[in-house]
Amino acid sequence: MQHDVSVIGLYILDVLGRPVTRIPDRGNVDFIEEIRLTVAGTAGGTVIDTAKLGLKSLAVGAVGDDEKADWVMMTMQKHGIDTSCMQHIKGVPTSATILNVRPNGDRPALHVRGASDHIDVPPEMYDRVFDAPIIHLGGTGLLKKLDGAASVTLLREAKRRGRTVTFDLIAASAETFHMVEPLLPSIDYFMPSIEEARDMSGQSTPEDCASFFLDRGTTCCVFTLGADGAYYAHQDGVRLKSSAYDISVVDTTGCGDAFDAGFITALHHQMDTESALRFAQTSAALVATGLGSDAGIVSFDDTVEKMRTLKIKS
Asked: Which helix (H) or strand (E) holds 180?
C-alpha cells in the first residue's frame, strides 16, 4: 500500500491566541504573547501529527476556495501529507475556528462550519481512500453530508477490505449517539474523551461506559481521561488504566487528536497495549505544553524519548 494511514473527516484552520484574559472594550487593543495558525480538526490535527510521527499519511476531507484553503493545503504538503483526496468546495469557506486561550488553558471558540459540512466519499474514491492499512474517521457530529448512512457505508467498506478502523468524534452529546451506534460494529478502536463517552452512554465510570459501547459492537474502547490518564477496554477482556503525565499545561487544543495520532502510530509499529497507551499519552502531553494542535511533537524518535523521560503522575 502507498500509505500507512488514511485520515478522513473534519479539517479546520485554527487561529489561536494566548493568553487572553478579556476582550477589549470598543475598538481598543490588548497585547498577548502568541498567535498561531494550525491545521486542526478531528482529522486535520490527527493527520498533521501522524505525519510528524513518521507515518505516510493521506488526508481525506474538504476545504473551501478561499485563502484559508491555500494555507491548509500548503501546510499539509509541507509535512509530506498526500492531499490528492482533499476536495475543494466552490463558494464555501474553509472551516475555521478562532480560539481565545485563557491563562488556565480554557479555550472559548468561535467557529465557521464551512467546507467540512460538504465532504463526501463516493465509491469511485474508495480505491484511493482505502489505500492504507489503518483508516481513521474523525469528526462525526460536524460532518453534515458524511454523517449518518454515508459513514455507515464507508466504514463497512473499510472492514470489507480488511482495514483497521479507528474513530473519534467531536462535540458529542446524547443526541449524537444515534449517528454513532450504527458505526460501532465497524470500529476497531473507539476513541472519544470520557466526557463524550458519558454524554452518549448515560454511564458515569470508564468501565461502565466501555461496557455500553462494547455491548453495541465496537471491538475496543480507548478513552482519554484528561488529567486522570487513559483507559483501555477490549472485547477480549483486557482492561488497562494508564496514569497521566505530570506536565505544565499551556493549551489543550488538539490533545485528543494528538492522542489519536499517537495511538495510530503505535498500531503501525505494533507496540504492546501498555506501550501504545503510553505513546499516545506522550503525544497528547507534548501538544498540551504549547499552543495549537501540533505543538510539541517533533518526530517519532523524540516522542519515544519523551515517553521514557516525562514524569508520570503518582
From this structure: helix 177-180
